[in-house]
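Record now logged for everyone:
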Amino acid sequence: MYFTLRSVCHRWNEITLYWSTMDISELSMANMMVPRILGRLQNLISVRLATQNSRISLNNELLYTAIFQQTHLEYLDLSDARNAGPMLKACAQEGKKLPTLKILTMARCPITGDEFGYLGECFPNLTSLDLRNLATVDNPALEKLATSLPSLERLNLRCCNRITDDGLQHLAAHCPCLTDLNLRSCARVTNRGIAALTAKLPELRRLNLRLCDRVRPPVLQYMTGLTRLESFTLSHKSLNTVRTLTPAHLTHITAQAHLTSLALCHVTSDALHLICTSFPQLSKLVLKHSPLDDEAIQHLSRLHRLTTLELSGCRHVTDRAMHFLAEQEHSSLTQLKVPRCPLITCSGVHVVLANMQGHLERLVVTECGISEEELSVFQKRFPSVELTVAEHKESKHWNRHQNERGLVGVGPMALAARQGHHAYHHHRRVRP
């Protein structure tokens, strides 16, 4: 039996007709090729078109025509795609719709405020929308978006810095089905906006307020009405008016029976005790820059379902706490992160790896008292655990590195956003 080139190509052509997922974000493909490929694949459920490294531009009429011909499409990623706004406007004017689309990602797309109103016309049944890092999202744009998408359930507005409390009021008034809201780094949002959200969105399950600088600790009093809250994040920068987060601040959320993920900063020992007694169902706990010592860490023994624990910047935590965590008989930790804990040394890391290697998958020891040689030894002895370590880079070394790469004028934070890792550290992930 033999195959000719024609028979192989014909068979391959038949197979591709049944593809359900398409990701060409990392391919250097000409614009003319994308519409042809999309035109042939009529059973696609998920399509990812563009990233920052892609050359694809949505100014090709054949391209968005091919997209709107998909009758089963449920997920579409247009991140960093150029001319996405004009595409939406043109399709809305022509009456084109994707009624099956449920999830849309438009991170960093250069879309203007007036073009947000076309989202509802093009994608009438959309339930999840990602608009992170969009500088054009302001209060009027958010009002148009909320009005046109009343069935929206999940919304990511991370780093949309032009949104204020008025925009959140529009969102709460027009999107009653909202259950997941990410407001990370929305610097103009205050307690008043969060109060409006929680009053009109009692079904809210996930709320991220990390790096919302104007949100103050009294915001916790508005969480009492969120009886289905599952995940809550409050950044330490929002606590710049108080030195610590005490039990008095946390009493408003102790009745949250469904809370499984909690991220706070500047938590005292008494507050941690209250957290552990009130939320034994927690699976993820993040405690950043908290004045906790080894005695306080023992409160975690109540959290038998905990799988992820982060103690970033808890500078009073020592090897004794690591020994305590490693000796827990019912521990189910899969991720342990202790970055910037200088009192944790080789001894603490060794006992964790030795006692928890059966279930621990990742250990982060950034800026701890551990040398590169010791980490290399750990990697050889415990290959099943991913070790993450970072070395601090001096500013002059960073600048020289930038010049060599031709990235002069690109700041550390901007470049980190492109590369997906911490701005001032070079991460070395050790994985067998």
